[in-house]
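Q: what does this look like with coenzyme A bound?
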Amino acid sequence: MIDRVERSILVVPGSNWKMIAKAASASADAICIDLEDAVAPDQKATARTLAIRALSELDFGTKTRQVRINALDSEYAYRDVVDIVEACHQNLDVIVVPKVNSGADLQFVGTLLTQIEMAVKSARHIGLEALIETAQGRFNLAGIVTASPRLEGLIYGSGDYAASLGMPMESIGGMDAHDAQYPGHRWHDVMQAILVAARAHDLRAIDGPFADFRDEAGLGRACAIARAMGFDGKWCIHPAQPEIVTAVFSPTDTEIAWAREVMDAYMVAQAAGAGAVNVRGKMIDAANLRMMQKVLARAGGG
Ligand code: COA
Ligand code: MG
């Protein structure tokens, strides 16, 4: 799997050129041009054309370039893949597949990609990310994560998941009065399942969007929950969001300093024949070493 940093992914409607151009220079780690739910049915063809133009003409800097195709049960999805990959195979990194219900969905897109890459003689292999946002997707996670060598990550889509399960949700990704009625986190099961499935197969785990884009505190809380669980990043739907999201999903200076201190102390202890050591009154052992390696990896420190 290609090791991309995806703390913040800015999603932009494919039918809106002005927003795509703005997103190209935004400070997110990735941009995702959406052809699916942010695009009205009569704009699907226009969105495809604009996505091709954007990927061909705009400078996205170091950002990962993604396109979300339409769902595989729609009449649009095959042409999304064929038109966009034929035209932009050199300038596209990841295809996001929405409403993935089983491994067969990813195998279908993977096979189509292989055919197109052969036809255009491209040595690049476009990656896949799967949106888990249906009851079937949650149920079939084990088959989804093993379906395609192109799979790089799983994304939790809370709006469609709520719709699929019949759970009430006032604003996508937010907490509301219904949460107060439920003793626990209503999305814990699916988020934890996504995280475990992703980690078992060395994939990224990405949290979905927080729709109330003026509520910075709410966004911060949603990020903090996902980060506390172990997620790598979160979708953003407005340019005000990536800065907040990137910050939460980056280790703090304090976390990095503690990681270095723990690792140094552990190495000294190990050289002296000890497996457990006292660092500032806390027991540190090999498990801490593994946790701290993850912190430093997220900080880009290896
Ligand atoms: N990417 C890039 N630019 C965006 C943007 C996005 N996702 N969302 C808003 N902007 C731009 C606006 O065009 C506006 O630009 P301007 O100041 O140059 O005119 C600026 O950011 C401020 O936008 P604002 O007026 O606060 O919001 P809005 O009413 O224009 O847009 C939404 C609000 C929700 C319609 C819009 O944010 C959006 O479409 N988000 C993405 C939706 C999406 O992709 N959904 C699918 C995935 S869940
Ligand atoms: Mg969705």
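The chain has a mean pLDDT of 96. The longest strand covers residues 8-13.
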